[in-house]
Amino acid sequence: MATITSDLASNLMISAVALTALTIMSLAALRGWRDWIQLKREELAAGHSIGHDAAVPHAGSRIEIADLKERLRKLEAIAAGVDL
Question: Looking at the whole model, is its pTM more than 0.90?
């Protein structure tokens, strides 16, 4: 009978420690998440994001510009009477 209560107490202690550790890790992760969200809100409020230079166009813009240049080249070739 003594071993059953000893095992029960041991299991209860291990469970309590594990739950406490999980709670601490969850609270730390939640704080980090909230701080990250606040940082992103401040970036949006400032009107720019970190690591993006205003002089450098976005990848989507570069693709659109390249596509427009290709279309223009084709139209100029058609206007000049060159067969592509």
Answer: no
Question: From CA 62, how far away is CA 57, in angstroms rounded?
Answer: 6
Contact 48, 56 (CB under 8 A): no
pLDDT at 9 over 70: yes
Question: Distance of alpha carbon 45 from its chain centroid, rounded?
Answer: 18
